[in-house]
Amino acid sequence: MNIKNLVRKNILELTPYSTARDDCRVPMEIYLDANENPFDNGVNRYPSPRQENLKQAISAIKEIPVKNLFLGNGSDEAIDLVYRVFCEPGKSSAIIMNPSYGMYSVAAQMNNVKIIDAFLTTDFTTNKKHGDTVAKNNATAFQLDTDKLLKQVRKDTKVIFLCSPNNPTGNLLDSKSIEKILKSFKGIVVVDQAYFDFAAADAGRNTNRGRYASGKHPSSTVRVTDFKNHIAKYPNLIVLETLSKAYAMAGLRIGLAIANEDIINIFNNVKYPYNINILAQRQALQMLRSSLRKEEEVETIVSERERVASELQKMGKGKTDGAVQKVYPSDANFLLVKFKQKEKIFHLLQENKIIVRDRGNMHGCKDCLRITVGNKDENDRMLRCIRAFAETLNANAYTNEEQTASGCVTPESISSEYIVQEHMEPERIASVERFTKETQIQVYVNLDKFREPRIETPLDFLNHMLQQIGYHGGITLDIKASGDINVDEHHTVEDIAITLGECLKKALGNKNGIGRYGFCLPMDEADAYIVMDIGGRIDFRWDVKFKSEKIGDVNSQMFEHFFKSLAEHLECNLHIKASGSNDHHIIEGIFKAFARTLKGAVRRETRDFAIPSSKGVL
Predict the structure, then answer these.
(1) CA distance 37 to 324
(2) Helix axis angle, 490-508 relative to 583-602, nearest 10°?
(3) How far, in Å, are 94, 244, 373 from residue 301 at the CA level?
């Protein structure tokens, strides 16, 4: 397939805007070409129109060559470019899933492109006539009827838009259906994967997933296929992704189009030259350097999605008048939920300062609200509101038949005790990155939640020791480090300790309610005694002797330096004394004892979260 045959003639003949800096590819020292203000304030120069540094970072993360990447002002810019490049205004048509993301239709109307609706299935039955077009065996709602869609293709149809996971329904589309369209359609196929990170994270989990109305989750019948890996196979494929959702950069407005080089070159010719501002490029580049927090946040959102879905399901299970009629399976960071008296619930949430999206006017979504998954406290507050309504509705079904018949259940009838949220201190979470010429260190901690530690450093023995802090401290600990160990391990060990200390200090916050002090008795086969005060004073004592120069692949002298650096940057008193006959057991005992000591010191001891000091200040 020759992509240029699909492009509008005037676009192919377009002479793109170019800057002097585009034409001159060598570094300059004095810039007198763009009529900029010469006085440096950080934003007085135009941003790079090619976004080289940001593309390099995204390329490394996504494992996609830079030549196949286009960066836009949100995915909306790429959607608009698809129409401008491939569709003749007033002459071309595009097929759009229904229901799906509204900007596909809005951009089509702005470009005077005829919209052809491809309605998704709205029940849970297999389409027997077109068995290959709908997921078989417990098929879910909101899937493509592929054969019917392909029959809707006209001579003037230039583009098909597919969204997977779909917005607002939340489900992955059957990948075999998408591939059939890619093989059969001779125009451009856009696969929007804005929410794919949540589907990929969900597919990789080994936990028992939530119970849904269908009894099956989409991933039990639908393959999780990352279509950006198929751009070489399908030259007519454009995959859209974004930094707004999983990467938490919605305010920066950076969207991605991933496609073959010909399409990317054309997009770059048509886009406005400085489409992503310099502050957005800098901030995105800085945030992309830390992958640990993104992975943790995505997993937390997926876990919360399952919990919220389960709690909502309980509000309708076995009750003919249940407030919740159906919770649709989701592979995204939101849930589509069908309610009884949807309008009343929508307004009740608003009265309690909670906003969700009403999707009841979309095909197959009657009486549905789309609820984004928030953090635990936000989700609990939302659930408390809906649960209060559900309990009132259920009670009315048995105590006041006349009221139930009229559907007259008002928000005012709900006691405020259901709605008011009990004060809860948030989880103590922090992430810190330290990047120097010698090392690149990332640390993420959650002092109030245990999860198996993820430690990646170039020193295997240090990995083993650092894991003990997570396991025996009962905390979430992720450390990702690289450094110049070809010289020696000094910088790597030291910078890990510094970053870990800073991260623990940051997570502790104002230290309200902490135990403050930690004490540890002998552990394992070696005696390891540790005392700690994390109140803010700094003092370090080390009474340990090793027989060997190295323990594993780490110089034994570095362990004293590690804990000294950690104590200084955690800002704590840390006294360590250990002895034994085996160096390995001695240092392992120290790490385990440190973890147990830390566990006691950071534990919240009181319900009023007072400052743990007679002075009232630390």
Answers:
(1) 59
(2) 20
(3) 34, 14, 6
| pLDDT tens per residue, range 458-492 | 999 999 999 999 999 999 999 999 988 888 899 99
Sheet holding 527-533, edge to edge: 517-520, 527-533, 573-579, 539-543
The number of beta carbons lying within 10 Å of the beta carbon of residue 29 is 4
The pTM assigned to this predicted structure is: 0.81
Q: Tell the residue number behind the tokens 């120290």, with chain if given.
A: 590
Supply 139's token pair. 């098929």
Cα 357 from chain centroid (whole Å): 20
Yes or no: say if 371 and 335 are a contact pair by the CB < 8 Å rule.
yes
CA separation for the pair 526, 551 (Å, rounded):
15
368-372: strand order across its sheet: 324-327, 334-339, 368-372, 357-358
- In sign, the C-alpha dihedral spanning 317, 322, 326, 332 is negative
Q: What average pLDDT is seen over the chain? A: 87
Which of 254, 195, 272, 184 has the alpha carbon at shortest distance from 1?
Answer: 184
How far lies 560's CA from each of 533, 563, 594, in Å?
A: 18, 5, 13
Quick one: 490 exposed, middle or buried, by C-beta within 10 A (0-12, 13-18, 19+)?
Answer: middle
* Positions of E strands within 475-592: 476-483, 517-520, 527-533, 539-543, 550-551, 554-555, 573-579
Cis peptide before 218 (omega within 30 of 0): no
Rounded Cα distance, 354 and 336, in Å: 16
Taking phi over 0 as left and psi of -120 to 50 as alpha, with beta for the rest, 65 belongs to beta
What tens digit of pLDDT does each residue of 339-395 get? 999 999 999 999 999 999 999 999 999 999 999 999 999 999 999 999 988 887 766
What's the first-to-final CA gap in the chain, in angstroms? 69
DSSP helix/strand/coil, 1: coil
Contact of 46 with 119, CB cutoff 8 Å = no
Cα–Cα dist 133/184, whole Å? 13
Q: Are 90 and 156 in contact (CB under 8 A)?
A: no
Q: State the Cα–Cα distance between residues 421 and 383, nearest whole angstrom.
A: 11
Give yes or no for a contact between 496 and 456, defined as CB atoms under 8 angstroms apart: no
**How far apart, in Å, are the Cα atoms of 492 and each of 501, 502, 589?**
14, 15, 22
Element (H, E) at 325: strand 324-327
Return the pLDDT at 375.
94
Structure tokens at 117: 């609706």
Please say if the pLDDT value at position 117 is more than 90. yes
Contact between 330 and 170 under an 8 Å Cβ cutoff? The reply is: yes
Enumerate helices (H) and strands (E) in the chain, giving the number of each. Answer: 19, 21
Return contacts of 48-51, CB within 8 angstroms, 24+ apart: 48/281, 49/19, 49/21, 49/22, 49/273, 49/274, 49/275, 50/22, 50/268, 51/276, 51/281
